Amino acid sequence: MSHTASMEEFEALLNESLEIDTPQEGSVVKGKVIAIEAGQAIIDVGYKMEGRVELKEFANPGEAPQIAVGDEVEVYLDRVENARGEAVISREKARREEAWDRLEAAYAKEERVEGAIFGRVKGGFTVDLGGAVAFLPGSQVDVRPVRDAGPLMGLKQPFQILKMDRRRGNIVVSRRAILEESRAEQRAEVIANLSEGQVVEGVVKNITEYGAFVDLGGVDGLLHVTDMAWRRVNHPSEILSIGETVKVQVVKINKDTHRISLGMKQLQSDPWDSVESKFPLGSVHTGRVTNITDYGAFVELEPGVEGLVHVSEMSWTKKNVHPGKIVSTSQEVDVMVLEIDPAKRRVSLGLKQTMRNPWEVFAETHPVGTVIEGEVKNITEFGLFIGLDNDIDGMVHLSDLSWDQRGEDAIQSYRKGDMVKAAVTEVDTDKERISLSIKALDADTFSDAVDGVKRGSVVTVTVTAIEDGGIEVEYNGMKSFIRRSDLARDRADQRPERFQVGDHVDVRVTNVDSKTRKLGVSIKAREIAEEKEAVEQYGSSDSGASLGDILGAALKGDN
């Protein structure tokens, strides 16, 4: 019994000894290099166990292995024994475990870690953080895109851990965060030594469409395109080039955002200070067209001073055309100064004022009555527009087309492009209007015919036609119509058939209408007027005497 008990106690002590002394698989143990052969280091990890590790596992990326016989190293124990009776160990896994412990502590404290970029992968680079491999996205390499990352490969430098997951073995780091932090400190120091209005030198680092970034010694300032020169600058590359050293003035500093606005034109005299003396109102100057818009064109009078020629001041005759059809960019033109507003830095210019008003020229060279010839440019419901010299038009109103026809009828005989002659009847230079007349070229037959004839006059007409409703008569070539009711005072005599073509008849003029060119005549009105005149001279309508009696007495008196 005692023998059996002692064996059990020995076995228990042996098992306890093995549990205490034998290292656990999956842990990091210390070992000693006892030999180096065939590119491998043979390491004694104690407990009568040896294992082999490839020499490359002892090398940092881009460096030669640093290991020698007798060195003590930590390795990771994968298995206590393999098929050859050796321990399966790994220096790389030991470094990784050690690195993860160290990196997790640094990540928790938001501390920087040291590493080296050793490879390129899709979307970025791989970084060795002393045993653990991290991913460096391309956007986190530098504050600006990096075209060539060659100089950064294998270089030990600090990184900031952005994210890590030990279970998945993922670590994401940033070099940009380190640079931005360092840059912010540097910017704060440089900005603290700058003041608004200070003149400094800098180097042009980058050029964009809206300006240029100038390095002031660790901090960039923006030189906006509008602050480069007093004149209009279409693109910063007209004035600056990358790498050029320039002298600039600090225009504004934003302490919160660390943004610095710079200016170059502030170091030059402002040309607007002398605009009023150099360009007095009404003076004419030669300038260069710098920009064309829908509402006009900008003309540079001198570097830094531009004026606007509004579209309404560009041409006397071209009213509704785009300014680009009158002038072109870079063209030199003569302009007149119309208005100056130094406070708003505006100059109003006129292009047409440098040329004579074509309506004034026409009035001087074509007095009223002058006969002109021109092309029918347009036909409207109220008349014809005739093209004249210097791109101006004259208008022939419907009422000035013909003496004999209605305007609506007369205009039908004209077509666009016809060459016509007309007489100048009026020139209004203020309203820019020229009135013409085609009918003025011919004599006014109506006026000639009725010259001296007034309402109430008695004239002799010739019967030219007999109709049911009356008779047509003619006076000095002017046709007129006497209605049946106007053929006689007595209704019984109001018969057209009692007249014959060629008869001469005395009639009384009832109307002379120059506008409608009509002469109104009546036989009845003449007879009534004669009766009235006889009564006034020879009798009274109240005496009871008949008209025959009165006329008979009048005839005896004449005898």
UniProtKB/TrEMBL annotation:
One Pfam family in the UniProt entry: S1
UniProt cross-references to SMART domains, sorted A to Z: S1
Role this protein plays: Binds mRNA; thus facilitating recognition of the initiation point. It is needed to translate mRNA with a short Shine-Dalgarno (SD) purine-rich sequence.
Single GO BP term: translation
CDD domains for this protein: S1_RPS1_repeat_ec1_hs1, S1_RPS1_repeat_ec2_hs2, S1_RPS1_repeat_ec3
Keywords: Repeat, Ribonucleoprotein, Ribosomal protein, RNA-binding
Gene3D superfamilies found in the cross-reference section: Nucleic acid-binding proteins
PROSITE patterns: S1
Cellular component annotations (GO), alphabetically ordered: cytosolic small ribosomal subunit
GO molecular function terms noted in the UniProt entry: mRNA binding; structural constituent of ribosome
Annotated ranges, domain S1 motif: 26-92, 110-176, 197-265, 282-352, 369-439, 456-524
Family per record: Belongs to the bacterial ribosomal protein bS1 family.
Full protein name: 30S ribosomal protein S1
